[in-house]
């Protein structure tokens, strides 16, 4: 199918078949419109880190705003057959879907906010059929962008204020992989992308150098540099490693000198192979000796936060980092593993639900949950997940989800804010989506609120985030009850 068709069609069927078979079942049982609550959350920080950056809400909002079964969608669903060749869904159900209007309440943590395991990033409350149907697309969107925003934040942190450019499109997981990654990487802290469509769609600054093929297309490196310098006298970065890096730097300098009288500004050189520490030091020496103190040294070649940290420790003279594969594919952890779990259903009154697991850490949390973040003037102190429906004690206690004997009293004078904010009310958007620049700024302000022991990459401390103690007790009682009845 043509790309345009794939990407411009309705995305309502961008969900798993089982969401539709459950929807049909609920409809047949008369349960389709029973009110339910689901939470989207993850269980473990990616990359062994101490924090995660929420991202993807804007695309989730766009998806939900457009949630409507088109004539084509309905025709496709009508065409689906069961194993005996019988229609999978009856026509009356297809008609029901045809007139369905999204009517859920959605609350979410704004993009760029630092988040912790078990905290609902998104809370959906509404008709069971609808709230269930949107599980998979919400996870697709939020899991990936949150993962990449977190990776990018780590890379930007390792670069310690240097410019970072995202170069990953060619190695990304497909077309949307490249676009979503460019957006999320920008939220995480990257300064620019080489991906023009991402630049156009999301208003991200675009930047780039040139490829080896440019140099190969000329008889000599000098000719290649001169031609590029002619075309871009104010914005040239020469890739110097096509044949011999140190010789390449010398030739780049010679060309820059030659072009200088014509107003040429020597923007930079790029290193893309070899020992980047040694070569950047050599290059810096040569550039400085020639008086090009402001000329940047760009490096690329399978870099990530670990290599950047290592190269900096070695004293590499690199001040711009081009990062592709390892960032946009989240190479060392290619999925976040966020989940979407039913937490409450209305049967006259609210009934709270959990999904049991052998591991306590994997058992979901019951209730209609909110996240309260406590902070003082210096930093974030602790997060507390609590049931919004229940009265909070005057002095709430936070229970460590992995060790319930560890409890934390909230400081008397700590300020607090609730992280989940209203996004949709009865299907109508009530949230003003911030622009991407504001989200990016929010990310860096958020990370700055974390103690450095939580920010560090090697064996970070755990930020205190847990359940409010009465919610913890309720959960434990529910687990015991369910274990008894399951026997
Ligand atoms: N000083 C360094 N210390 C550790 N790793 C480095 C250093 N300099 C470069 N690297 C990394 O080592 C890896 C191998 O780089 P190298 O250029 O030697 O091989 P390559 O990428 O296979 O070469 P080419 O790009 O020419 O095919 C890359 O990930 C690069 O970023
Ligand atoms: O290494 P990454 O972090 O993935 O960054 C992107 C890579 O893409 C380019 O290489 P490629 O070999 O595709 O083309 P080139 O000829 O321009 O080097 C570029 O030179 C980088 O090395
Ligand atoms: O502009 C660049 O230097 C660039 C763009 C994409 C991939 N690698 C490098």
Automatic annotation (TrEMBL):
Pathway connected to this protein: Cofactor biosynthesis; NAD(+) biosynthesis; nicotinate D-ribonucleotide from nicotinate: step 1/1
Gene Ontology biological process terms, A to Z: NAD+ biosynthetic process via the salvage pathway
Keyword Thylakoid: no
Domain Nicotinate/nicotinamide phosphoribosyltransferase residues, every copy: 165-346
Modification after translation, per record: Transiently phosphorylated on a His residue during the reaction cycle. Phosphorylation strongly increases the affinity for substrates and increases the rate of nicotinate D-ribonucleotide production. Dephosphorylation regenerates the low-affinity form of the enzyme, leading to product release.
Family annotation (InterPro entries): Aldolase_TIM (IPR013785), N/Namide_PRibTrfase (IPR041525), NAPRTase_C (IPR041619), NAPRTase_N (IPR040727), Nic_PRibTrfase-Fam (IPR007229), Nic_PRibTrfase_pncB (IPR006405), Nicotinate_pribotase-like_C (IPR036068)
Catalytic activity: 5-phospho-alpha-D-ribose 1-diphosphate + nicotinate + ATP + H2O = nicotinate beta-D-ribonucleotide + ADP + phosphate + diphosphate
Listed EC numbers: 6.3.4.21
Single GO MF descriptor: nicotinamide phosphoribosyltransferase activity
Domain of life: Bacteria
One Gene Ontology cellular component: cytosol
Pfam families to which the protein is assigned, alphabetical: NAPRTase, NAPRTase_C, NAPRTase_N
Family: Belongs to the NAPRTase family.
Job description of the protein: Catalyzes the first step in the biosynthesis of NAD from nicotinic acid, the ATP-dependent synthesis of beta-nicotinate D-ribonucleotide from nicotinate and 5-phospho-D-ribose 1-phosphate.
UniProt-recorded name of the protein: Nicotinate phosphoribosyltransferase
Species for this entry: Pontibacter flavimaris
Top-level taxonomy: Bacteria, Pseudomonadati, Bacteroidota, Cytophagia, Cytophagales
